[in-house]
Each structure stands twice: as structure tokens, then as C-alpha cells.
């Protein structure tokens, strides 16, 4: 894992691409003004990694926000995902083109399979390998894949996924899955790092926030990065976007890292990748 230095620092993916380890997630940001201004605020504040998905229905606004910011497209690490009803070989290629069109760009930095769909995802992955070889996307990966999903996919693939984006927070560490990903040089990435706001009610975070003169959110986001996990907290509020990124002037001790690791109880706030119906 590289050093954690600043908002534009990166972790290196197994194909040599540099992925900024901190970004803005735009799940639930409304298309139009809300997401456009969130993207502009983030980019103009120094963020260089934006994470969206077809199902978020805001790719148009994301593209617009990038265009209207003072940052060149080539300096933005832009991520989208193929939704479940468009998985499959041909439909993934079409879904990718539609995402590009909505985003107003001719390539993506990272494209992810949003959820594991068994055999269907293997067809999706073949399409993604093709997009990667055609240099339409700089890196390809998956989201919500547990170890057995990854093993199943890798067994029949030419390219090992570069990223696995998972629900990740102190109640759901899944250290065995992180270890498996590290062994296969698959970069681990967190969604829902703030546990839908639950961390603000937890005594452990109140204590650590006081100790480090930081907020609970800043403490948990710092924990992510020190574990080598890319993180993309979502917000459409300017103050929150700026505050979330203020995590490069302190470091959690090993003892406090362990304290947070030990809160793990295998608890999900989102769907279970082994049991979902969409």
C-alpha cells in the first residue's frame, strides 16, 4: 500500500493504473443541479475521483459537472457500473456506450459489474475484458462480489478484476475477503463507510473524535485509507464534501485501528450479495 499523503494520492491497480484512494460517491444525488454542483464543489476542492452508476440515474449531471468544473476530464478518475438488467455480453457493451453518452466522455477510468449474477456475470465480464482491450476503459472490476463469486469469475476469465467495491465499515470488515483480494492484487473499495450515519451514535467514535480533534466521519474515513481501502463517501452538501476530505493531517494509532477492526459483527446495512432479488 502506498503512503497516504493528500486528497490526490493514489493506490496502484494491478495493471499499473493509479486510482485516487479518496473520491466522491453520488448515489442518491439527484440528476441536474444537485449532482452538478456536488461534482463541481468536489473537483474544485481537489477531489479527482467520481463514482456513479447507471442505476443512479445521474450520469448526465455527473458529466455536466465535470465539464463545468475547472478540471480537465483526463485528470478525473471516472467510474460507472453496469446494472443487473443490462448484464450479459451484448447488453453490457450497449450499456457501456449509453453510460459514455450520458457522461459526455469517450472513455471511463473504471467500469464495474454492480452485483454478482452468476453465469450472466461471466458473460458481462467477457464484454468488459473486450472494452478494456479496446482501451475504452482503463480498468475493470466488480462490486459486491464475495470470495466465492470472485473465485468463480476468475476461474473463467483472462483478466483478474482490478477492483472490488464492497459495503465496508467497522460493523462489516470482512477481513478474510480483504486478504483474498490483497492476495490477488484486487483493490478493495468501500461503499457506505459511514454506516448510514450510525457511527455518529457510537460511543467509540465519540471518544476517538475527541482524541484526534476530528469528526466521527473523518475518523472512519481515515481508518479506511489506513487499511488500504479506497473510499468514496457520498454527499451533495458543500460543507460535508469539504469536511470529508480533511483527513490528511492526522493518523490513527495501531491501537485505535485495532479498536475499530474489533467492532466487526458481520452486520450489513445494504443487501446481502448472496441473497438479493433485483
TrEMBL record:
Active site: residue positions: 56
Superkingdom of this protein's organism: Bacteria
InterPro entries in the cross-refs: AKR, AKR5G, Aldo/ket_reductase_CS, NAD(P)_OxRdtase_dom_sf, NADP_OxRdtase_dom
Classification via Pfam families: Aldo_ket_red
Binding site residues for substrate: 114
SUPFAM superfamilies referenced in this protein's UniProt entry, alphabetically: NAD(P)-linked oxidoreductase
Keywords: NADP, Oxidoreductase
EC numbers: 1.1.1.346
GO MF terms, alphabetically ordered: oxidoreductase activity, acting on the CH-OH group of donors, NAD or NADP as acceptor
Site (Lowers pKa of active site Tyr) location in chain: 81
Presence of keyword Oxidoreductase: yes
NADP-dependent oxidoreductase domain ranges (all copies): 30-264
Family recorded in the similarity comment: Belongs to the aldo/keto reductase family.
Protein name per the record: 2,5-didehydrogluconate reductase (2-dehydro-L-gulonate-forming)
Organism listed in the record: Flagellimonas maritima
Gene symbol of the encoding locus: dkgA
Amino acid at each position: 500500500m502506498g503512503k497516504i499523503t493528500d486528497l490526490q494520492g493514489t493506490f496502484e491497480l494491478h495493471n499499473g493504473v493509479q486510482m485516487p484512494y479518496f473520491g466522491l460517491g453520488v448515489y442518491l444525488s439527484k440528476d441536474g443541479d444537485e449532482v452538478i454542483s456536488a461534482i463541481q464543489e468536489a473537483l474544485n476542492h481537489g477531489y479527482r475521483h467520481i463514482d456513479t452508476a447507471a442505476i443512479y440515474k445521474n450520469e448526465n449531471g455527473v458529466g455536466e459537472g465535470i465539464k463545468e468544473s475547472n478540471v480537465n476530464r483526463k485528470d478525473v478518475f471516472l467510474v460507472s457500473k453496469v446494472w443487473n438488467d443490462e448484464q450479459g455480453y451484448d447488453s453490457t457493451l450497449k450499456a457501456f456506450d449509453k453510460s459514455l453518452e450520458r457522461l459526455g466522455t469517450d472513455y471511463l477510468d473504471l467500469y464495474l459489474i454492480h452485483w454478482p449474477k452468476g453465469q450472466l456475470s461471466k458473460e458481462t465480464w467477457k464484454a468488459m475484458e473486450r472494452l478494456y482491450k479496446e482501451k475504452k476503459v482503463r480498468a475493470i472490476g466488480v462490486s459486491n462480489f464475495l470470495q466465492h463469486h470472485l473465485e468463480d469469475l476468475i476461474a473463467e476469465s483472462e483478466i483478474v478484476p482490478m477492483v472490488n467495491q464492497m459495503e465496508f465499515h467497522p460493523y462489516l470488515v470482512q477481513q478474510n475477503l480483504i486478504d483474498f483480494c490483497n492476495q490477488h492484487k484486487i483493490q478493495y473499495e468501500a461503499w457506505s463507510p459511514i454506516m448510514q450515519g450510525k457511527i455518529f451514535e457510537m460511543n467509540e467514535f465519540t471518544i476517538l473524535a475527541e482524541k484526534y480533534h476530528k469528526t466521527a466521519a473523518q475518523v472512519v474515513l481515515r481508518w479506511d485509507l489506513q487499511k488500504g481501502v479506497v473510499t468514496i463517501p457520498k454527499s451533495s452538501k458543500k460543507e460535508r464534501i469539504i469536511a470529508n476530505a480533511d483527513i490528511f493531517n492526522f493518523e490513527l494509532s495501531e491501537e485505535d485501528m485495532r479498536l475499530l477492526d474489533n467492532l466487526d459483527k458481520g452486520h450489513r446495512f445494504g443487501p446481502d450479495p448472496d441473497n438479493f432479488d433485483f
